[in-house]
Amino acid sequence: MDTKRTVAVLGTGIMGAAMARNLLRAGHEVHVWNRDQAKTVALADAGAQVASSPAQAVAGADVVLTMLFDAAAVTEVVRQAATGIRPGTAWVQSTTVGVHDAAALAGLAGEVGLDLVEAPVSGTREPAEAGQLLVIAAGPEAVRERVAPVLDAIGARTIWTGEDPAGGSATRLKLVVNSWVIAASNAAGEILALAEALGVDPRQFFDLIDGGGLDLPFLRTKAGLILDDRLEPASFAVDTSLKDARLILDAARGLGLRLDGAEASAARLERVAAQGRAKQDMAAAYFASTEQDPGSHDDSGRGAMPRGEVTR
User: Fold this and answer.
1) What pLDDT does residue 2 have?
2) Which of 39, 141, 215, 228 has the smallest count of CB within 10 Å of its CB?
């Protein structure tokens, strides 16, 4: 059975570009489009065909993959692509959207002739570049086989949550996962801010939890970005994580839940975005504790925070 596909990747930011590179490595023909064409240059050098429009990108594609900022961007770009879509083309929709967006995107798929697979991913820049994302997917059995080579190229494994992408089961699980990611990243910043204020070497904290039940590789990773001033390029940017935090809060409020931690995390992300850190890694939420003057980027206020690796 032929497992090679022609794949149109719409959106080549941090995640989309990494997905496109892994699709190329797997031997697929890859067409790419991005609003900012500068973000497609490296992919062209790697063998991708760069399209000047979404419609040109999807022409002749077996699978369309969208990795854009939000549901509004997905809707706009897919409508722009509509004239180039071949009816029955599979659509792998990997943008993180809200719980109420799933049905609308399913309706859009039917309108333009795409067979939708809801497929948000769990992972940041590094696992995306390594093809080690976790794909959270919902879609009919008949379409799963067609998109399997694509999902295998971008991810380490795929977790199927249901057959009806309109139901949003994959999106709901993705929002639960991201609520934990945002909380853990925010915790890393607060731990370091408190340690600095108390005059505690943060390495003592990591030595204390080393290998125990409180240890967490993700916590160490985000703390390391802060300690080593490696907030750019972002693995998961402040503006994107803030968008997801708002989606999580919208979902919770719609169910009558109050998530105090998620509300606090969103507020911290809003503060650092206002400081001009929207494109830095989400670990920059650390500065919500340390910078009082919006717009200030002076990192010297951190005092004598010890630098160095926090990984084992």
Assistant:
1) 80
2) 141
